[in-house]
Specification:
There is one protein chain. The chain is α+β, with helices and mostly antiparallel strands. The chain has five helices and 24 strands.
Length: 390
C-alpha cells in the first residue's frame, strides 16, 4: 500500500474518533444541566394568626383644657392657688373686690322692700273696696281698677326680686371657683390684676383623667383595615396600648373613640383619637408615645415562610411549583409579619406549593425534585408579635 494512502486513512479515523469523543462529552453536560433541581417545599393552607397590630407615633392631648374667666369685672384681691397645683371642682381660686357688688345688693334689697310695701297697701285697699262694693258704696269699676293696681304691684315685686337675685349672684361671682377637677397650668395671674368679665384669662385647668392620645393613619392603612373588617375575616374588637418615651409599657389599656371625617389635605392621613385612663397623671399633654392598635386575629389567612420570599427590583416574590413540576414566580404583597411568616394580601392561594429551601441558584421554569416538609421540620413559628409591613 502506498504510504500517502495509508496516511489518509489514519487521519480520517482520528477525525471520526475525535468527533465521537466531543459529541459524547457534550451530551453528558446537556444531560447533567437538565437534571431536576432538589428543593424543599411546603403546601400553603389557610390558618388563624396571632393578634394583628399597627404601630403609630402618638401625641398625648387632654380631654378638656378650660380657661378660667371671671363672670364679673374687678380687681383680684385674694388668690387661693398657685400654678401647677391640683384642684377639685368647686374649689375657690380667686376673690375679686366686692364693695360695688355689696352696694348693688343693698340697693336692690331696699327697692324690693319698698315694692313689697306698695303691694301690701294695694292689697289692703282692694279688700276695703270689695267690702264697699257689697254695700254699693263704690262702683264695680273702682274695684276693677284696684285689682289692676295690685297686679302691677305684684309684677313690680317680682322684678325687684329678680334684680336682687342678679345683684346677689354678681356678689357671689366675686369668688372664682374651679369648674372641674384638674391640674392648673403655670399661667395663673397675680393679685392686683384687673379682670374683665368673660375676657381676662385667669388660669387654665387641664383634665388629667381620662386623657386622649391622637395618631394618624395613612389612607392605605385605613383602606386595608376597612376592607379587612368588612370582609369578616378579622376580629373587629380592638385595644390600644402605649409605649412611653423611656421605653416602658404604659400599664393601662385604651380604646379608639373618635376619628376625623376626612383625610387631611397634603398629608393624606386620618387623625384618630384613643382614650386612656390616667389616674396617676403619668401622661401629660404634649408627650410623644408609640401607639399599638391591636385588631384581633386573622381567620383563614394565607401565610408563607419568610425564607420563601425573595426580592428583586423593589418587588417581593415567591417560587411556586406548578402542575408540570416546574418553578414559577409569583409577585406577592406582605401585610403583616408573624415570627417566621408573612401574611399576604395577594400572590398565593390556598393549596399552592411554595419552595422554602434550595432557592440560591433556582430560576423560574426549572424542573424540580421536591421534598415536602412541615413547618415543624423547618422550625418555623408564629409565636412572636405581628408587625405592619410598610
Amino acid at each position: 500500500m502506498p504510504v500517502c494512502r495509508w496516511k489518509g486513512k489514519f487521519f480520517a479515523l482520528a477525525a471520526l474518533l475525535a468527533a465521537l469523543l466531543v459529541g459524547g462529552c457534550g451530551g453528558e453536560k446537556e444531560e447533567a444541566a437538565e437534571a431536576p433541581v432538589p428543593v424543599k417545599v411546603m403546601r400553603i393552607a389557610k390558618q388563624s394568626t396571632p393578634n394583628l397590630f399597627h404601630e403609630f407615633p402618638g401625641n398625648v392631648e387632654s380631654v378638656a383644657d378650660v380657661v378660667v374667666q371671671s363672670k364679673v369685672s374687678g380687681r383680684v384681691v385674694e388668690k387661693y392657688i398657685s400654678g401647677g397645683e391640683w384642684v377639685k371642682a368647686g374649689q375657690p381660686l380667686y376673690r375679686l373686690e366686692s364693695k360695688q357688688y355689696e352696694s348693688d345688693v343693698m340697693a336692690a334689697q331696699a327697692n324690693l322692700e319698698n315694692a313689697q310695701v306698695l303691694l301690701q297697701n294695694a292689697r289692703i285697699d282692694l279688700m276695703r273696696n270689695e267690702e264697699l262694693l257689697k254695700d254699693n258704696a263704690i262702683s264695680e269699676q273702682q274695684v276693677t281698677t284696684q285689682k289692676t293696681r295690685v297686679k302691677s304691684c305684684e309684677e313690680e315685686v317680682a322684678a325687684k326680686e329678680a334684680l336682687l337675685q342678679y345683684a346677689q349672684q354678681n356678689l357671689d361671682d366675686t369668688i372664682v371657683y374651679a369648674p372641674m377637677d384638674g391640674k392648673l397650668a403655670l399661667d395663673d395671674v397675680s393679685v392686683g390684676t384687673y379682670t374683665v368679665a368673660g375676657q381676662t384669662h385667669l388660669v387654665t385647668i387641664t383634665a388629667p383623667d381620662p386623657i386622649y392620645v391622637t395618631f394618624a393613619v395613612t389612607g392605605q392603612e385605613y383602606l386595608w383595615i376597612a376592607s379587612y373588617v368588612m370582609s369578616g375575616a378579622g376580629n373587629v374588637e380592638q385595644k390600644v396600648t402605649l409605649t412611653l418615651a423611656n421605653g416602658e409599657q404604659y400599664p393601662h389599656v385604651g380604646h379608639i373613640v373618635q376619628s376625623d371625617r376626612a383625610l387631611a389635605e397634603g398629608t393624606g392621613t386620618l387623625t384618630v383619637k384613643a382614650i386612656f385612663p390616667n389616674p396617676d397623671g403619668v401622661l401629660l399633654p404634649g408627650m410623644f408615645t408609640n401607639v399599638k392598635v391591636t385588631g384581633g386575629s386573622a381567620q383563614n389567612a394565607i401565610l408563607v415562610p419568610k425564607a420563601a420570599v425573595q426580592e428583586l427590583l423593589g418587588k417581593q416574590f415567591v417560587l411556586l411549583v406548578d402542575e408540570n413540576h416546574k418553578s414559577t414566580s409569583h409577585v406577592i404583597k406582605p401585610v403583616f409579619e408573624f415570627g417566621d411568616y408573612y401574611l399576604l394580601d395577594k400572590g398565593v392561594s390556598d393549596g399552592d406549593i411554595v419552595i422554602v429551601d434550595g432557592l440560591a441558584s433556582l430560576q423560574n421554569g426549572k424542573e424540580l425534585d421536591t421534598t415536602l416538609v412541615t413547618p415543624e421540620e423547618m422550625g418555623y413559628s408564629m409565636t412572636t408579635d405581628s408587625k405592619k409591613q410598610q
